[in-house]
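Predict structure. Chain length: 297.
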Amino acid sequence: MEIGRVGVWTWGFDHLPWAQVADAAREVDELGYGTLWFGEGTGRDAPTQSALLLGATRRIVVAPGVVSIPRHEPTTLARAERTLAEAFPGRFVLGLGVGAKVIADEVGRAWTSPAATMAGFLDAMDAARTTAPAPATPAPRVLAALGPRMLELAAKRTWGAHPFLMPVEHTAYARERVGPDTLLVAHQNVVLDPDRGRARETARTALAGFIANVHVAPSRWRMMRQLRGFDESDLADGGSDRLVDALTAFGDVDAVTAQVQEQFAAGADHVCISIVTPEPHPVVGLAALRELAPAML
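Prediction complete.
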């Protein structure tokens, strides 16, 4: 499957009516980005939205980044995966993640070892009985992987790893652990604004949710501390400059492109960019994507 070098990752769809989502997806497709990644929260469920996006577009690969497995049954998810792979050959990637304890608690599932939970879920998907027509090629899977055990599982059991909202040092760390042949998809927040001070404040606002909930998913913060030497002082006052700078590429087109190239230099095969703006909720960021496309693609 060809997912391209640069894709788009967005939370923006959850706030839009479907007609606007379809129009935005078609434009991202026409701009030439390789893959359209979207988060699964409490809006549209990932298999349904994947089907809608695939039907609305012509060429682009669609990938939930990622399906939160506590919210899904492995058998029904396996059937959806097979259906989408058969109906849209070479255009669907299934991203899977264990989520967080708070999500498991919401749906009444036990929270145990993340790597063991994911391995068991993969086993159950592989064992699922389905009589639907088989796709010519099964949909590849990627795992939301940060630490060594999940990265190892991604390399052994799936096409690759998809770390989310991590500094470039984690890309190098992940590449060392998954080896040279495993797909590594890095996520990168982007603020397209030549005013550095204003861009940093936009980025800081966008990270407010992460900072407020940093201990909900402690493995992410633990890894950031290990790789960059962050401490609790970096979470104060909306986030230190060094924390914001580590998690965001900002500046004009040349500056942003250079920072995305750092992800490739660190070992990423594909970088999915999330456009951050001063808007009070996540947006797709079509204006920025239009401006970046000639330099990125």
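Summary: The beta strands are 6-10, 35-38, 61-64, 67-68, 94-97, 141-143, 160-161, 183-192, 248-251, 270-275.
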